[in-house]
Structure formats: structure tokens, C-alpha cells
Specification:
Elements: E1 2-8, E2 11-18, H1 24-34, E3 47-51, E4 54-60, E5 72-76, E6 79-85, H2 90-103
Antiparallel strand pairs: 1-6, 2-4, 2-5, 3-4
Length: 108
């Protein structure tokens, strides 16, 4: 697993929220099957955000338009983040990610 820190500009996204890592596969399937409903999509990439609020899988948009039913809009704030290059699902590597995050708690 490759881990790097990057400075990220704010990103507007529309997608699905789950309770935790156990929802990862379901959220990616939902996004894949309904991505054409999302107006102003920038590209084909999917963003996976893990936060204290749960798991969020979404597509980046140039601007917010109509939010499809069952989806929500979230702006990922600008800041320094950790980016994980995964060859497997997040649930399969969550232990390694947790250990990495614990090693550098001063990174925001």
C-alpha cells in the first residue's frame, strides 16, 4: 500500500453515505449504477472519504446541480490529507490504514 500526503483544493462531490467500512462495496456499486444521474460530473473517478461521520463514496462535480434522490452533496474541504493507493478494498486494508494514521496524529 502506497501512502502519500498531498495538499488538496476543495472538491465538490455528490454520492452516497454509509455507516462504516462494511458499506464500502455497496456504496461503490450504487455509485457505479447511478453515476449518470449526477449532473456536472468532472470525470469517472470515485472518491472514498472516511471520516468520523462514516463512509462516503462520491463523484466530483464542477458545481452542484440537482441532487438525485438518495444521494447527498458534500464538499471535501481544502487541506492536507493522506492519500492511500489501494490494490484491494478498504475493508481488506483497514488495519494498515488505522496503523498509519496512528503513527502521524499531527497531520490534518
Amino acid at each position: 500500500m502506497q501512502v502519500k500526503q498531498i495538499q488538496l483544493a476543495a472538491i465538490q462531490t455528490i454520492g452516497f453515505r454509509g455507516e462504516g467500512i462494511q458499506d464500502e462495496h455497496k456504496l461503490f456499486r450504487q455509485l457505479k449504477s447511478r453515476k449518470n444521474e449526477i449532473e456536472h460530473r468532472i470525470d469517472e473517478h470515485a472518491y472514498l472519504v472516511i471520516s468520523p461521520d462514516g463512509l462516503y463514496v462520491a463523484a466530483a462535480v464542477a458545481r452542484f446541480g440537482a441532487i438525485p434522490e438518495g444521494m447527498e452533496s458534500v464538499t471535501i474541504p481544502a487541506g492536507r490529507i493522506k492519500c492511500f493507493g489501494l490494490k484491494r478494498s478498504i475493508s481488506a486494508t483497514s488495519g494498515m490504514i488505522s496503523a498509519t494514521l496512528r503513527r502521524k496524529p499531527n497531520i490534518t
